[in-house]
Amino acid sequence: MNEFEFIRRLREQTESRKRSPRVIKGIGDDASVIREASDRDLIITTDLLVEGTDFYRDATSPDLLGHKALAVSLSDVAAMGSRPRWSMVSIGLPAEIWRTDFKESFFSGYFALSEQYGVTLVGGDVSESKEQIVVDSIVIGEVSPGRAVLRSTAQPGDQIFVTGNLGGAAAGLKLIEMGARGSSPTVREGTASRQEAGGRRQELESGAVATGFHYDAKTAEGDVIESLLLRHLRPEPRVGWGIVLGEERLAASMIDISDGLSSDLGHLCRESNVGALIQSANIPFDEDVRKICGRRALDPLALALHGGEDFELLFTVRSEDIARLPKRVDGIAISCVGEITRDSSLRISERNHIWELKGGGFEHFRQSK
Ligand code: ADP
Ligand code: MG
């Protein structure tokens, strides 16, 4: 059973049980929607980050991890078209990490982002773990009643948009897997303190580590590599876009791109009982990926389609609402990448060919029975 089958079963179990009439949306969207008062709905989401699966201890720093833990949940709240308000965070740390300044650095990254969006930390939990760092992040948002933007409300003829550009975070992850480690002060500082904590020591030179991956941080290529690493390690949730698309009733349906465009578009289409036709030429590639793809054997289209963790918003807009869309929010532009179709297939048009678009994004327990 994979992650998605498990969630489907759980969802059926909750739907067949007695449930509160104030649950507007339970399992099955980026976040749940609860009718909290007559003048607002609450949006609640939780995300788990596990060392070794969701991040590597030696490739990030505590403050980047604090930022990312909050960012991924802010992204889910944005994908509901709502404004984030409150948060909780629980951390499980091995004793040797607990004794370092990990906690302080983690929360400096966390608070820097929470302050940016006026989110108040209202609780959490702390536990000792045996080996791995585990972080669970909850964010609560609010939205005018009935304005939450669901995955299940796309209609044939809707135009499909994405914010920002795609593929950068997946390229960053590939570079990390090839052995790249950042040389920017924030990455290096955290890496160094963790290495002391773990009793492992490696000499970090500019952008190179004892992994066989070398680059010079002072060159143009070094700049590109560092910015791709940060796209993965320090995602920027599209909070401003989320609020505009929800409150102004611009998005007809929405999801955030955490697993990859193909996979998340698949989730949206399945929930809405529709299909989609994507125009390959309109996909906004990350420029940095294009710059280094040849030398580092990365495929920009594959990364943009199937790579995860860009945390951009994917949303659909009825044709009569397109003229009301702002060009940019917080400096971030959008691109129209395709159209929702009546049949349930996911397809991509590339030059004069139309291919079936298979979901190739990230999936937990993909190989498990
Ligand atoms: P996202 O990628 O947007 O965070 P997920 O794929 O993690 O969404 O989850 C999809 C849906 O399944 C969400 O509604 C989420 O709340 C629900 N879900 C995931 N894991 C569990 C669980 N252990 N118990 C209940 N609901 C879950
Ligand atoms: Mg999501």
How are the elements arranged and paired?
Layout: H1 3-16, E1 23-25, E2 32-37, E3 40-50, H2 62-78, E4 83-93, H3 95-98, H4 102-116, E5 120-128, E6 134-143, E7 159-163, H5 168-178, H6 185-197, H7 220-233, H8 239-247, E8 253-256, H9 261-272, E9 275-279, H10 287-292, H11 300-306, E10 313-317, E11 328-329, E12 332-341, E13 346-350, E14 353-356
Parallel strand pairs: 4-5, 9-13
Antiparallel strand pairs: 1-2, 2-3, 3-6, 4-6, 7-10, 7-12, 8-10, 9-12, 11-12, 13-14
Helix pairs in contact: 2-4, 2-8, 5-7
Describe the structure.
The chain is an alpha+beta fold and 369 residues long. It is built from eleven helices and 14 strands. It has helices spanning 3-16, 62-78, 95-98, 102-116, 168-178, 185-197, 220-233, 239-247, 261-272, 287-292, 300-306; strands at 23-25, 32-37, 40-50, 83-93, 120-128, 134-143, 159-163, 253-256, 275-279, 313-317, 328-329, 332-341, 346-350, 353-356. Strands 7, 8, 9, 10, 11, 12, 13 and 14 form an eight-stranded mixed sheet that branches. Strands 1-2-3-6-4-5 form a six-stranded mixed sheet. A hairpin with a 6-residue loop joins strand 1 (23-25) and strand 2 (32-37). Helix 2 (62-78) packs parallel to helix 4, helix 2 runs parallel beside helix 8 (239-247) and helix 5 packs across helix 7. Mean pLDDT is 90; it is low at 188-210. It binds adenosine-5'-diphosphate and magnesium ion. Adenosine-5'-diphosphate is lined by residues 7, 10, 27-30, 47, 76, 258.
